[in-house]
Design goal:
- The protein is α/β, with parallel strands linked by helices.
- It is globular and about 35 Å long.
- The chain starts with a strand and ends with a helix.
- Helices cover about 40% and strands about 30% of the residues.
- It has a 5-stranded mixed sheet with strand order 3-2-1-4-5.
- A hairpin with a 4-residue loop joins strand 1 and strand 2.
- Helix 1 runs parallel beside helix 3.
- It is built from 4 helices and 5 strands, in the order βββαβααβα.
């Protein structure tokens, strides 16, 4: 099973934002380290961009089973269908993520504490730093 960790953050909310995704296989081999800058965005928008990047990577690499882990309880519960997506700005991102989930097939979502999401957090900081270059 391939595992994708995702994260997103902003310095201010909204503020300079970035996202990160860290993807590993069962043996812990790093398959991808992804990051990106978003300009000014909210934390939740940045989190969704990290999730979408991880899902897009999986779809592009013909992954059919994926474990997704993140420290955003909101996103994990929205993707599980336990929380409604009330924010109009998040709805297009949510729908994009759901489409990628359908494309991949077997995707599970788990909430992890921040300390278990350090690599994705590191990459989201790389993304946030990219706003100043």
């Amino acid at each position: 099973m391939i595992t994708a960790y995702f994260d997103g953050g902003s310095r201010g909310n909204p503020g300079p934002a970035g996202w990160g995704a860290y993807i590993v296989d069962d043996a812990g081999t790093v398959l991808a380290e992804l990051s990106g800058a978003l300009g000014t965005a909210t934390n939740n928008v940045a989190e969704y961009h990290g999730l979408i990047a991880a899902l897009q990577w999986a779809a592009d690499h013909d992954v059919t089973a994926l474990a997704v882990k993140g420290d955003s309880l909101l996103l994990v519960e929205q993707m599980r269908g336990n929380y409604r997506v009330k924010n109009e700005g998040l709805k297009p991102l949510y729908l994009r993520a759901k489409m990628l989930v359908m494309q991949i097939g077997n995707v599970s979502f788990s909430h992890v504490p921040r300390e278990m999401n350090k690599d994705a957090d590191r990459l989201s900081n790389v993304g946030m730093d990219g706003n100043t270059r």
